[in-house]
Each structure stands twice: as C-alpha cells, then as structure tokens.
Amino acid sequence: MAVASTPPLQLVIAALLALSLSTTASSSPAPANRSSCYKRLFSFGDSLTDTGNYIIHYSNASGPVLALPYGETFFGRPTGRWSDGRLIIDFIVERLGFQYWPAYLKGAAGKSPAEEFRYGTNFAVAAATALSQDFFLEKNLRVDLLTPSPIPPYSLGVQIDLFKKVLAMLASTDQERKEVMSSSLFLVGEIGLNDYNHPFLQNKTLEWVRPLVPQVISSIVLSIEALIELGAKTMYVPGIFPLGCTPLYLSLFPGDDRDPATGCLRGVNDLILAHNHMLETKLEELRRDHPGVSITYVNSYDNVLGLITAPTQNGFDKETVLEACYPVFISGSAAVPCVDPSKHVNFDGLHMTEAAYKLMARGMLDGPFAAPSIMSTTCNHGC
Length: 383
What we know:
Strand order of the largest sheet: 2-1-5-6-7
Radius of gyration: 20 Å
Strand content: 5-15%
Shape: globular
Structural class: alpha/beta
CATH class: Alpha Beta
Oligomer: single chain
Order of helices and strands: HEHHHEHEEHHEHHHEHHEHH
CATH superfamily: SGNH hydrolase
CATH architecture: 3-Layer(aba) Sandwich
Largest sheet: 5 strands, parallel
Number of domains: 1
Distance between the termini: 49 Å
C-alpha cells in the first residue's frame, strides 16, 4: 500500500502520545460549557469517532494516520483522527461548549476523575466492531487490513464496560450515578461498519456478510439497554453511511452493479440499508419499552447521500464526489494528497473529509437527520 513519506515512526508516536488531543494554536479551547442541558458527552464507536484511542493502544502501529496529511486542515498535525481535520464528534463538542476532551485510553496523568472526565470522554477505537473480537477470531478474521493491525479488542460491549469503570470513578452512590447518567449525552456509534468491512476486505461475499446484520443489530441493542439500565436518558444512535459510495469499495468491486443515478454499488448499499432499517426498527421498540428515555436515530445514510447527489450545493466538486482526496487505501493509487480537501466528500477512500463531517454534524445538531436534533432538545431529564 503506497503512503506518503513519513518521519521516523518513533518520533511520530512520541509526538502523538504527548499532543494528540491537547489544545494547539490552531485549535484554541472551546469556551466554558454553554450547554444548559448536558454536563458531559460520552461517545462510543469506530474510526468515524476515534480521536486517538487507536494509536494509543497500538503505540507501535504503522499506517497513514500517523502522518500528514491526516490532521492537516485543522490541527496541523496527525492526531489519530482518520480525516484531514475534525470529526463529527469534535463539532458536537464545540457546539455544546465543551473543551476538547481526551480519548479514554490517553488518560490524564495526575488528574482526578472529576477533572479528567469533566466533559465526558471518548471510547471509540478505529476498526472496532459491534460484535466481539472473539466472534471474528472464530471466523478466522483476525486482521484489519486497512491499518494494518489485529482487529482491536474494543468492541462496543467492551467500550460499554470501560464506561462503567468511569461511572464508578465519577459517582460512588446510586443517586450520584443517576445524576451523572441523566445529565449526560450519549453518542452510540457509528458502529457496525467494521463488522461488514473486515469480512469484505478478506474476500467474503455479500451472501456471507448479509446474515451478520441481525447479530450486529442485537449487539448494538444490548449495549443501548445496558446504558438505559445504568440510567441514561438521552442517546443518539447513528446508522451507517452509504458504504457502496466510498472510493475504496468502488475500487474493490469495479464490475458490480452500479446505481445509474449515483454511481454507487447497489449490493453493498442494500446491505447498509438493511442494517439501518433494522436498527431504526429496534430503536423504535426500545422507545416504546422505555418511554422516559430519548433514543434518537441519526440518518447518516441520507445525510451523506445528499452530499454525493448534490455536491455543488454543498461546496464539493462534482467531478471528484466519488473520488478520494488522499487515496491511500485505493490499490494502485499514488496516494498523493489533493490540493483542497474541502472540495472532496471522501478523504482517504473510506473516511470523510472535515468538510463532509462538518455538514454531517450539522444534520445531527440542527436537523433534519436527527429528530429531535441535539440542539433542539429541551432537556427535561433532570439536567
């Protein structure tokens, strides 16, 4: 896999571990908490949400995320985010008025839990799955071919278990835990993409992958129920974006059936639509079973598809809407960064640019791709 030239790996890792989520001159601290609703934000997921957990866990890892142009647009350096700049979670943190908080695995040496988790924390890890690591090991799917490293042991269930440890540090009594849970916002996902991505990248077919969908959804539902049992009152649960529109998948399956209206892969997108429909149905059931809990489905699929079908209206180049700015994951590509990532929807073949994430975040914060949107929530759960 061709990648851009990088400085010595040990120097990159040292810099990342020291600075990956600290405030820099290009990313000054957000103002004091403006949110009249949420005291903390806790997030779970994979590389779409990971703000540095992956590189901290795999401190000896190699791969493109350790070097520019990752991070070039906003941070001016790689931070462990799989984009040229900020992710959806960063824009949500900014709008809530929180300071950028550390990825959970980074920790904050010398700080008390109240200080370290003052605004919450992020448990998402790149390449993480909804199903357990053991599930994939039993299927002889052991490696994430994109990173490349073993499939990480931070499935959604493991991330929830890590959150339970944080909750125990923050609150010692049932009443205190109830207050923490009711006054926090939970972002559960995006998760599930890698449950399909790992098999596809190891030559499994749609027929092999499709039966995984109910199992993936069940795993997500179990984690949501675990948060509800702990006392969570407000959750946002994103679906998966149209994977069949990514440059990586368009290059992996060049001869597959394409939608003439979009140029995207029909079979792959049908799989994602099945996942999203089942997820949305299960969330509706959870809402009926737990009327005191706000569980909002986030329609990431239509959000991203809108950027692809109406690129110029959203500031992107029509000619490159299905191309990667930095095609590091595209076999045979020179992996030369583009001049202006803001004109691209896709950054590296699978992940989005900061410009795309900004619009996706707006769809969650202000609507219409989350109803109620995050900023319209009246916060009637004890905040």
